[in-house]
Q: What sequence folds into this?
């Protein structure tokens, strides 16, 4: 059987609230508990005592002032106190007491009435008035308390709902963060897989290229050897009666050398490389490489600006291979400025920052270098025409070249990239906003010498 | 003064013919050529070369195996071998006297100048009649 239990809803609410661990929920719990203790006339006995004391005071005043009917109104004070603070029945009791007190004071004051029953009638009227005021006030008070309870109860419920919502939002944020973390991990794995796949493809390509290169080298170098031997013979034994003969021989020899250098670079790209590492200073290798392209530097008015950091740390490098990298980079830069120009070479040791290197290969950069890791950077700038933007991402492809036929094999940057990779270095080629190309090489900073 | 005897072993007929022409035209060398790896030993025993110029990759036989066989023969033990190979990249700049497994080698295509320098280096090394 269902029956109404005062405060049942509050208890249910309290139970619900207690199940929740959120601090906000516990806070609203306290509110409900405070509400549960609140009742109309929290101290009814004290209120009743005070009201009776007030009746006595008013009675004394009434008695002392004699036959003064308007004093009646002061009895409403204890009645109101009892009704407001002690409830309906205490107010009825105080009303009766007030009516009796008034009657007694009236009787003692010796007021004479035209009829003997009039004092009793007056007392009844007083009692009626007191009761009406008392009962109405107590009802009003009861309604006010009830309303307040309802408001508090609803407020607490709302707070509970808010707390619950906040808790769910927190859970949502947590779940979202977990999902974002998982997504990040997934993306990272995907990138790693992609990178591994690319490396595999690259390895397979290089292996195929290696086999092809060895075959081509053998089949092409032998006929080249015959041509060169023939040219050598003609050079020494054909009388130079015809003025064109020396030129024909020179051009034939140049063609043989060009074909041979393509084959040599092809072998260079595809051959497995072993590094002969030693502690090297990059500045020294830069200087040596500049000497090796000196003949090309003399061919046109070039300005070489060397901005080399004096105290570069020593790095573990294969000096010959890194020199070859610099020679190829310088040669490319000079080829891009056939009429002369400015070649700037800069070396720096600094903490690694992605922005310092750009996002040439974002897939591998973050995994290879970590922020604040010491790196050594070499930048080579030319003042040439730059590389057409649509061709920039192909510059490392084998046999890709922007040079005119016969000027380049398209293997120079492929060789450079391979050597850089063998050293765990990064290479980036991009157009400079002010014109020309910048080649950036980024080497891992010094490791403890073994 | 007798000329330096050079035995050239290579399967490229035109190449050995031109090499012979070039070397002999210097006036310092007598050149004998051989295309077949199987005949090299007999030819060398008969010709007694001062230097053997040997292609590193002959059909059916590795040049280094032929060199080992030659050096296993008492009368040919001290004859230096200069390898020619079409399988390695040419060195940057003037062809240096690179060595592999103790033997000098030159990469094809080779100029007469580099070949003569190689032959002379071999002769100097073995204390033969270097000019």
A:
């Amino acid at each position: 059987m269902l029956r109404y239990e005062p405060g049942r809803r509050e208890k249910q609410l309290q139970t619900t609230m207690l199940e929740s661990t959120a601090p906000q929920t516990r806070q609203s719990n306290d509110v409900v508990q405070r509400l549960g203790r609140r009742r109309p006339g929290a101290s009814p006995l004290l209120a009743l005592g005070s009201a009776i004391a007030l009746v006595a005071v008013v009675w004394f005043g009434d008695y002392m002032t004699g036959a003064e009917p308007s004093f009646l109104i002061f009895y409403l004070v204890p009645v109101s106190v009892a009704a407001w603070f002690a409830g309906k029945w205490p107010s009825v009791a105080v009303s009766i007491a007030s009516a009796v007190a008034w009657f007694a004071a009236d009787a003692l004051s010796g007021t004479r009435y035209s009829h003997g029953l009039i004092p009793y009638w007056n007392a009844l009227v007083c009692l009626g008035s007191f009761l009406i005021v008392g009962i109405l006030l107590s009802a009003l008070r009861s309604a006010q308390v009830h309303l307040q309870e309802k408001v508090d109860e609803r407020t607490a419920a709302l707070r509970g709902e808010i707390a619950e919502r906040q808790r769910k939002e927190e859970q949502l944020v947590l779940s979202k963060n977990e999902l974002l973390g998982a997504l990040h991990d997934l993306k990272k794995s995907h990138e790693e897989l992609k990178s591994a796949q690319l490396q595999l493809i690259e390895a397979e390509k290089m292996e195929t290229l290696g086999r092809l290169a060895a075959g081509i080298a053998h089949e092409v170098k032998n006929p080249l050897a015959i041509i060169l031997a023939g040219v050598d013979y003609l050079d020494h034994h054909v009388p130079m009666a015809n003025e064109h003969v020396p030129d024909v021989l020179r051009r034939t020899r140049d063609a043989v050398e060009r074909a041979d250098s393509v084959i040599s670079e092809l072998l260079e790209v595809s051959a497995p490389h072993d590094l002969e590492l030693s502690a090297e200073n990059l500045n020294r290798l830069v200087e040596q490489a500049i000497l090796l392209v000196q003949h090309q530097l003399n061919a046109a008015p070039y300005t070489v600006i060397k901005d080399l950091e004096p105290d570069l740390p020593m790095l573990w490098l294969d000096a010959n291979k890194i020199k070859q990298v610099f020679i190829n980079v310088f040669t490319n830069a000079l080829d891009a400025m056939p009429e002369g120009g400015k070649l700037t070479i800069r070396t720096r040791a600094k903490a690694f920052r992605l922005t310092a290197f750009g996002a040439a290969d974002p897939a591998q950069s973050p995994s290879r270098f970590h922020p604040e890791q010491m790196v050594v950077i070499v930048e080579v700038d030319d003042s040439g025409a730059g590389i057409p933007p649509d061709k920039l991402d192909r510059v490392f492809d084998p046999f890709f070249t922007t040079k005119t036929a016969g000027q380049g094999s398209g293997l120079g940057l492929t060789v450079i990239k391979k050597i850089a990779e063998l050293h765990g270095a990064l290479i980036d080629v991009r157009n400079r906003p002010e014109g020309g190309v910048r080649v950036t090489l980024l080497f891992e900073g010094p490791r403890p010498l073994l | 003064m007798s000329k330096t005897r050079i035995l050239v072993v290579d399967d490229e007929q035109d190449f050995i013919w031109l090499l012979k022409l070039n070397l002999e035209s210097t006036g310092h060398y007598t050149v004998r050529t051989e295309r077949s790896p199987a005949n090299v030993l007999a030819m060398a025993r008969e010709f007694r070369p001062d230097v053997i110029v040997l292609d590193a990759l002959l059909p059916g036989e590795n040049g280094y195996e032929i060199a080992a066989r030659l050096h296993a023969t008492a009368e040919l033990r001290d004859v230096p071998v200069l390898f020619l190979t079409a399988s390695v990249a040419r060195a940057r700049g003037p062809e240096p006297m690179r060595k592999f497994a103790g033997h000098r080698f030159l990469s094809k295509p080779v100029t007469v100048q580099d070949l003569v320098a190689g032959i002379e280096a071999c002769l100097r090394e073995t204390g033969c009649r270097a000019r």
User: Anything to note?
Assistant: The interface with chain B takes residues 214, 217-218, 220-222, 224-230, 232-233, 236-237, 256, 260-261, 263-265, 267-268, 271, 324, 327 of chain A (CB under 8 Å). Chain A has two domains: 1-272, 276-444.
